[in-house]
Amino acid sequence: STLRKGYLYLALFATVVGSMVTAGWLLYLVFQQLLGGNLPNFTLNALNWLAALILALVWLFYHQHALRVDGALALRSLGDRHAAFPVLILQEEDERFTAELVQALQRAAPRLPIVVHRAAAGAPPDELLRSRAVVLPGAQAVRPADSLREWLNEFTGERVLVPLPADGLVWLGSASRDARELAQETAQALRQLAEGQEVRPAQSTNPWAVTAAVLGGVFGLFLLVMLIFGLVASFG
């Protein structure tokens, strides 16, 4: 559940911060003692901080294990959904898109059943009407042959239309993309359909946004380290 996942991530964050703080305190005491500080009750304080560090690490590893187990169960459940979602790909003469799509689906959803049918061979056989989704090049959807039109009239699954270039057809609102990009976006849509999700269009990655996110993470880590050292110094 979302609540459990949120708790696990929050617990991981808290235990990581706790481990860093306790480790910092422990090292601070040890270095002070080694540099001739002659701290009173050094052994007792060091043992207390060591016990706190061990406890924080135990909780950290426990929640990591729980999150890993949850992830494995989620993958198994999604795999079962993929296996129950057979997909039919209608292939035109240009096989590049179909090859890229099959590879993308094998990476994104390895258990998803895939059948490729050549459009030149006529309408797909009737047993393929049980497919949960059919991938149609845009030209086949707009100008289907009579046999394919009859087959589509009986098909009750999802129809995923791919805006592949075609003479006489202009796809408005669709940027020009190569076969690999279209295949990856189509594979993502099919995976979302198989998992019962709403199909969300792929968003282009802005390199400046990625750079800002990386710099923000580095700056946040720097602030966290400075905060830990500031707490250690203030209590020292």
Describe it for me?
- There is one protein chain.
- By secondary structure, the chain is of the alpha/beta class.
- Helix content is 62%, strand content 8%.
- It is built from 7 helices and 4 strands, in the order H-H-E-H-E-E-H-H-E-H-H.
- It has helices spanning 2-34, 42-83, 96-108, 138-142, 146-154, 179-194, 207-235; strands at residues 87-91, 114-118, 133-137, 158-162.
- A 4-stranded parallel β-sheet has the order 2-1-3-4.
- Strand 1 (87-91), helix 3 and strand 2 form a beta-alpha-beta unit.
- Helix 1 (2-34) packs antiparallel against helix 2 and helix 3 packs across helix 6 (179-194).
- The longest helix is centred in the first third of the chain and has 42 residues, at 42-83.
- The chain is elongated.
- It starts with a helix and ends with a helix.
- 17% of the residues are buried.
- The model has no long low-confidence stretch (mean pLDDT 83).
Radius of gyration: 28 Å
Question: What is the helix fraction of residues, given as a range?
Answer: 55-70%
Question: Unreliable segments (pLDDT under 50, ≥5 consecutive)?
Answer: none
Estimate the global geometry from the Cα principal axes: elongated
How many strands, which pairing sense, and closed or not: the largest β-sheet?
Answer: 4 strands, parallel
Distance between the termini: 43 Å
Strand order of the largest sheet: 2-1-3-4
- How many β-strands, per DSSP? 4
Q: Can you count the helices?
A: 7
What is this structure's SSE topology?
Elements: H1 2-34, H2 42-83, E1 87-91, H3 96-108, E2 114-118, E3 133-137, H4 138-142, H5 146-154, E4 158-162, H6 179-194, H7 207-235
Parallel strand pairs: 1-2, 1-3, 3-4
Helix pairs in contact: 1-2, 3-6
